[in-house]
Design the sequence.
């Protein structure tokens, strides 16, 4: 299990702490730009849908957050696995810090899905396959967070969480197929018209902007969380003490 | 190789012996299972048509909850008296020892649960094909519950917050519930159920392969 | 010739540094006592030596190989005895010993009654260990030392709950094992009454 040296250097908390500030800022700036472009394009420039009217515009929040909810879970599981195998602290921290962000994306996807559903289906909640999978995904996130908070030792918590996340990632495709199968048998194809919307370019481009904005938002907030976790993890090391000492001196 | 088979059976025998000496540990969850099943007719009235429709679902959901309760004890005493430490540091793979423990749990809990469900099905005069489907899905599903449960128990053992275990197990076991119920519903209306059964069998094989490894890794982490 | 080596070991528990830069090395016949006040990291050190706790800084080697890299080889060479006895309350003395014997990977036939006699539990073969006193359970747990073929013994407070006579028995076994070329590391704050065998010492704690 050999890792190249530059990766170890990149994974060193101190090095990453210094580097991440810059990345976080730039990601934040790109996020704001994409967000403004995407929202303007989506809410103003894009034409109303001939079937759904203006209500489809919630898609610009719903779709990116649903994508991110899965993406973040994958990041969490992969980072957890890396931390488990190569014992890289940074990977553990990334996994731990991702969980609340991912849970928020999942929650956002659920809420916007439900709001979108109201004009479409006439009720707030329908046992649609995607919404149900998303709900189970939220449970997986909450379980992970609950497990994290039950441990006193951060490193043990991170490794236990990594196992849970890996079990979850094996389970997610199974959950997805089982729910899909279940809902088609129960409901018939009433909602599949949302499934493959042949999307017009003027609607697609703002969506891509929004997806990019969500990605950079994730990177930016993740790094902020990672930075503060690094300080907690490394509170015994001289560089953290020095850093905090200098800051106190200036104040 | 024979050495490994030997240790597997020694641990299996040890756990079965312990279970029969401390019967409450596996009998109480089974009692819980029976009582909850009895609660439903009391709640919904004795309208037998409605009950017949619901019974297999009730049995499955209750089995899920009862498994969660019964799993809590699978590693607890071993963790407290240092047996897990000895297992971990023995010359045999922890995965193997853990598999023996999980099998012992399924024998003392899963098997009686299937028998009780079969009996309940007869008492409530469910159609034959429903009972058959119920038993097949339970036979394939309860080992998966034990296997997935073992991972989460290993992760949560000795932690504060008693409900944590159910929070972790239940979402992970939802696919098993879904496929089982689909099979039972298909069987009731006379449709073929092989697709769902294959899926359940596939999940079982996957769980048998991966869950002991994950459980062993989780136990190692918990000991550190 | 076997060699157990600890190099620049550091131990951090709950964000506190318990010890740093710890070095020692033991070869065949080595006997090492670790002492120190409560919370000085005795148990953690033994757990690290056994591989139960991950080493964050430093290295532990067995015959020149990191113990994590040769886990199964290492584990078949050690016998670890921790705070808890590893004795199942629901099993009788004999049944407990059968499991211990199997876990030790020792395939030779063993006279269980003779071992019980040696540890002062004569005639208790079929007594459930839940009926035993704390000291008797401890003795039963220590019975695994009589059944192991392991070279390296790691004993955490082996004399806890033992009376004078029990302690003497264990001391004798330890010396026997070392004389036969074994290695023993044990943690205790009791004084050892071992005459005529060289005993190394490591003291953990602030006074160092």
Sequence:
């Amino acid at each position: 299990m050999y890792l190249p040296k530059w990766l170890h250097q990149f994974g060193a908390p101190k090095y990453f702490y210094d580097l991440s500030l810059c990345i976080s800022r730039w990601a934040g700036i790109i996020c704001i730009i994409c967000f403004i472009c995407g929202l303007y394009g989506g809410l103003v420039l894009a034409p109303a849908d001939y079937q759904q009217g203006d209500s489809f515009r919630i898609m610009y929040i719903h779709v990116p957050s649903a994508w991110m909810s899965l993406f973040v879970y994958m990041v969490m599981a992969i980072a957890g696995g890396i931390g488990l195998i190569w014992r890289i602290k940074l990977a553990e921290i990334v996994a731990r810090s991702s969980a609340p962000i991912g849970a928020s994306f999942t929650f956002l996807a659920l809420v916007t899905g439900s709001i979108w559903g109201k004009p479409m289906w006439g009720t707030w909640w329908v046992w649609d396959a995607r919404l149900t999978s998303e709900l189970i995904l939220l449970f997986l996130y909450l379980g992970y967070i609950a497990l994290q908070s039950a441990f006193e030792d951060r490193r043990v918590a991170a490794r236990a969480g990594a196992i849970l996340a890996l079990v979850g990632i094996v389970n997610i495709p199974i959950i997805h197929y089982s729910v899909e199968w279940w809902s088609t048998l129960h409901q018939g194809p009433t909602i599949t018209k949302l499934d493959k919307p042949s999307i017009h370019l003027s609607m697609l481009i703002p969506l891509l902007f929004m997806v990019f904005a969500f990605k950079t938002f994730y990177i930016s907030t993740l790094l902020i969380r990672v930075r503060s976790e690094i300080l907690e993890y490394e509170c015994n090391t001289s560089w953290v003490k020095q850093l905090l000492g200098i800051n106190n001196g200036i104040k | 190789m024979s050495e490994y088979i030997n240790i597997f059976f020694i641990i299996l025998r040890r756990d079965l012996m312990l279970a029969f000496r401390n019967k409450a540990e596996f009998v109480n969850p089974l009692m819980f299972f029976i009582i909850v099943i009895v609660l439903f007719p009391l709640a919904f009235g004795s309208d037998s048509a409605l009950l017949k429709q619901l019974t297999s679902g009730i049995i499955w959901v209750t089995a899920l909850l009862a498994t969660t309760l019964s799993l809590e004890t699978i590693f607890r005493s071993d963790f407290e008296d240092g047996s897990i430490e000895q297992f971990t540091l023995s010359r045999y793979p922890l995965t193997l020892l853990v598999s023996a423990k999980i099998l012992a749990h399924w024998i003392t809990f899963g098997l009686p649960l299937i028998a009780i469900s079969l009996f309940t099905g007869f008492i409530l005069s469910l159609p034959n094909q429903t009972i058959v489907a119920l038993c097949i899905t339970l036979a394939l599903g309860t080992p998966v519950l034990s296997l997935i449960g073992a991972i989460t128990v290993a992760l949560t053992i000795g932690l504060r917050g008693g409900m944590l275990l159910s929070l972790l197990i239940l979402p992970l076991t939802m696919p098993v519930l879904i496929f089982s119920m689909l099979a039972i519903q298909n069987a009731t209306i006379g449709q073929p159920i092989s697709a769902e059964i294959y899926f359940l069998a596939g999940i079982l094989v996957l769980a048998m392969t991966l869950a002991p490894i994950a459980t062993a890794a989780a136990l190692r982490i918990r000991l550190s | 010739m076997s060699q157990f080596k600890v190099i620049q070991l550091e131990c951090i528990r709950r964000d506190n540094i318990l010890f740093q830069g710890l070095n020692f090395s033991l070869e065949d016949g080595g006997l090492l006592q670790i002492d120190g006040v409560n919370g000085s990291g005795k148990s953690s050190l033994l757990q690290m030596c056994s591989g139960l706790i991950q080493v964050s800084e430093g290295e532990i080697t067995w015959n020149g190989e990191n113990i994590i890299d040769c886990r199964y080889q290492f584990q078949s060479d050690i016998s670890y005895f921790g705070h808890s006895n590893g004795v199942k309350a629901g099993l009788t003395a004999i049944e407990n010993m059968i499991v211990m014997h199997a876990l030790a990977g020792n395939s030779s036939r063993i006279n269980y009654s003779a071992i019980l006699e040696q540890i002062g539990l004569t005639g208790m073969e079929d007594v459930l260990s839940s009926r035993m006193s704390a000291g008797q359970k401890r003795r039963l747990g220590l019975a695994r030392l009589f059944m192991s073929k392991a070279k390296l013994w790691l004993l955490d407070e082996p004399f806890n709950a033992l009376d004078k006579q029990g302690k003497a028995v264990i001391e004798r076994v330890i010396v026997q094992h070392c004389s036969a070329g074994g290695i023993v590391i044990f943690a205790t704050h009791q004084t050892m009454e071992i005459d005529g065998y060289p005993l190394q010492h490591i003291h953990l704690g602030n006074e160092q």
Q: What stands out?
A: The two ends of chain A are 46 Å apart (CA to CA). The CA atoms of residues 67 and 108 of chain A lie 11 Å apart. DSSP finds eight helices and no strands in chain A.
